[in-house]
User: Fold diguanylate cyclase from Acinetobacter tandoii DSM 14970 = CIP 107469.
Amino acid sequence: MTTNSPPPSPASLQHRLKKIVLEYGVIMNWNTLNKCILMLILGCVTHLIWMLWKIFIWLNPSLWSMTNLGLIKQQIVLNLIFIVVLSSLIYPCIYWQHKAWVKRFLPYITVWCFITSLCRDAYLIGVLSPATLSSFVSLLTVGLILFPRSIVYSALIPSTLYLFVCGYLSLHGMLPYAPIFNLPNDTYANAFWVGSMLYFITPVVMICLILFEILLSQWRNREQLIQQLSRIDPLTNTYNRRSLNQYLEHIQRKKNQNYALVLLDLDHFKSINDCHGHHKGDEALILVGQLLKQHLRETDIVGRFGGEEFLLLLYHTTLEQAQHTAERCRAAIEHLELKDDNGSRIALTASFGISTAQSPLTPFQLLTQADKALYLAKASGRNQVHIFQAQTENGVSVP
Assistant:
């Protein structure tokens, strides 16, 4: 029987928001939902600032003749409603962020709500006003940097059509232009003036958008390459120790996964470096890294754990399957064609230690078990596969 947990207090929400800011200092490294939280907070602040301007007009009778006072009173209430709606979306972004449907749909919902709330005020102050145009370009560029294109353009296209239709209807007298202000009837009803503004504005916006898209694509490709390089061991082209730890931490958070850890160490690797040179040692590591990737499934993980050690993370794998995989890799390493500078074959073997998922042990505890099994394989003569068992802890000491 499950029970519903009590709703979090405002103090708890504030603590979680503070933790997010401290934990992910670089905004570009935030996940999409955390970026949505930032956007929602800024949206609330924007509507609050607009409310203060409208309240200022309402409290100063000398300005009533220049504004539509009745509309301003309505918009104060509407701004308050938008603040409530935007702030209410912060909760699921924080507390439901691990749900698949939240990750998929909530970014679209939050961006749509944010843009919709701004479009209304853009019409009120005039779709061709400097404030509207500068906000449009600024939000477009910032949005494309922070969010995937699909999210940004899904809100950008309908909002652009909305502003275009409002401008068209205002031009033909079907809608008032900038209705929040009391403007002369013919101020923005001149078709030549409106057409000229659109003529000069459109190419500038389009050129800037195209150039920005090109620069953004190049920048994102560069960032992806840098991120990929930071996760890969440059010598073996397998995952590095940092990436392996991240995968283990991910498993620890997910829990209840069926997996196996295989830790392997190249036998007598130091003698290869000493007798044949470090370049042959590097070649041995490269060949082993390539071989391991060829003998594993696409869903499995292989990485250089340190020095001449490699770690295999085998998802959805039983003990028998893990042992079979390790034996296949061991035999393949034994038959690797590694030759010295004179063309003579260099013997190359590896020892393996296996540990499989056991509740309530963490992946890092299983890694310790695999390490004990590996050292038992070393002590038993090397070029062997050993499985961790309870008695392994009292096994033969490694010389």
Notes: Residues 241-394 form a domain with the Alpha-Beta Plaits fold (CATH 3.30.70.270). The first strand starts at residue 259 and ends at 266. The two ends are 54 Å apart (CA to CA). The chain has two domains: 10-231, 241-394.
